[in-house]
Amino acid sequence: MKSILSKIFQSSEPQSSNFDQEHALRVATVTLLVEISRADFVEQQSELDRMGQLMAKQFLMNQTEQDELMIQARENADKLVSIQHITRLLNENFDAPMKQRVVEMMWQVVYADGIKDHYEEHLLRQVCELLYVPHSKFIQARHKAEQSIDN
Asked: For a Cys staple, 77 with which of 34, 47, 57, 66, CB 3.0–4.6 Å?
C-alpha cells in the first residue's frame, strides 16, 4: 500500500511541474508579445486582437484562459527591467523552430497595425540575438508576417 501511494504522489509531481513549466513558457512568450506591442509607445487594439488570435492558435486556449494569461503577461511586462531572463527561459526550453515561431508571432503583432516602427524592429533584433535566431530566420519571419497582412 505504501509503495502504491508513493508511486501516485511521485507521478503527480512531475505532471504538476510540467504544467508549471509550460505555463511559465506561455507567460514568457506572451510577455514578449506585450513588450513588442508597447515598443512603439502606442498599444493598438489591432495588436491586442492579434495577440489573442496567436494565443488561441499557438496554445489552444479559450477566451477565459487567454484573458488570464494576458493579465499575467502584462503584470510581468510592467515589472520587466530586462528581457534577458525571459529569453534565457525560452533558450533553455525551446528548440530552434519554436524560437523562430516566437519571432514570427512577434512580427505578426508588429504588423497588426500595418506599421513597422523602428523601436519594434530594434526590440525584435535584440530578442533574436538573445534567442540565437539566425538573421536569415529573422528576415524570413518578417516576410511571412508582411505577407499575412497583404492577404
From this structure: 34
Q: Which three cell numbers stand for residue 51?
A: 495577440
Domain 2-150 has CATH 1.10.3680.10: yes
Q: What is the pLDDT of residues 36-85, one digit of tens each?
A: 999 999 888 999 999 999 999 999 988 999 999 999 999 999 999 999 99
pTM: 0.84
Q: Domain spans of the chain?
A: 2-150
CB 55 within 8 A of CB 61: yes
How far apart are alpha carbons 60 and 132 in whole angstroms?
Answer: 26
CA atoms of 94 and 43, how far apart (whole Å): 28
